[in-house]
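Summary of Year 1 activities. Much of the first year was spent building the evaluation harness for sequence design. The harness presents a backbone, in tokenized form, and records the residue chosen at every position. We chose the following record to illustrate the format because it has been used consistently in internal testing since the harness was completed.
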């Protein structure tokens, strides 16, 4: 089991949750995520208070909910290029909705001046934190992204970008990245591979597809 993840229970609607150090969050969301970004978002209040703040050499610990929030922020900032300065209020609202037990299947879109718009169940469109607006068509990209993030919240699964066979499962090995469908940590495979030829590694884990082993080793190489 990863030394950077420990078990916490029970929280919310799942029986087992995980705690993540900032470094583990960065590993799961690599490439592109840095401890500087996570600490900044913690400092500015976007993620809420950590489960445990860094003190006396003990690492800051975040919840699965906060891991998911970091993932959402990463996508909105890096991929969709929303300005943190201009949409701070909208981001806070969106993140609260995302992990709300009473989730409503809303639709989201990019409004003017890098704002986030939403269409509610009645079909009314408005800017989050702002006024109602008229909308003729609704782009799907942002809605699909938010729904995918909600699915991660409901299932406890965060797929590692660029590695379709690697996943962080809140109920498996404390959320440490594993080969999907197994309890085999990528960090453990990388440790074994340092002293073992790949063919020997494949023989040791003969039930695991070779492409999954290769992905695990490549992920650890990039995340290191």
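For this record, the design step produced the sequence shown next.
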């Amino acid at each position: 089991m990863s030394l950077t993840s420990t078990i916490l229970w029970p929280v919310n609607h799942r029986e087992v949750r995980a705690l993540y150090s900032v470094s583990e969050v960065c590993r799961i969301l690599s490439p592109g995520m840095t401890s500087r970004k996570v600490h900044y978002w913690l400092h500015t209040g976007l993620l809420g208070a950590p489960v445990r703040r860094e003190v006396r050499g003990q690492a800051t610990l975040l919840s699965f909910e906060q891991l998911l929030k970091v993932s959402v922020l990463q996508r909105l900032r890096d991929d969709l290029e929303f300005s943190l300065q201009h949409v701070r209020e909208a981001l806070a609202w969106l993140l609260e909705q995302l992990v709300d037990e009473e989730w409503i299947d809303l639709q989201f879109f990019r409004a003017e001046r890098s704002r986030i718009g939403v269409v509610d169940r009645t079909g009314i469109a408005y800017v989050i934190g702002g006024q109602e607006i008229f909308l003729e068509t609704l782009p799907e990209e942002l809605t699909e992204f938010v729904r995918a993030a909600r699915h991660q919240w409901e299932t406890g699964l965060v797929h590692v970008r660029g590695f379709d066979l690697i996943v962080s499962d809140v109920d498996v090995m404390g959320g440490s990245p594993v080969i999907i469908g197994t309890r085999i940590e990528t960090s453990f495979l990388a440790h074994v591979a340092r002293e073992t030829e790949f063919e020997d590694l494949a023989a040791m884990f003969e039930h695991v597809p070779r492409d999954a082993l290769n992905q695990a080793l490549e992920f650890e190489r990039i995340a290191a």
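The first strand starts at residue 5 and ends at 8. Quantitative recovery figures across the full test set are reported in Table 2.
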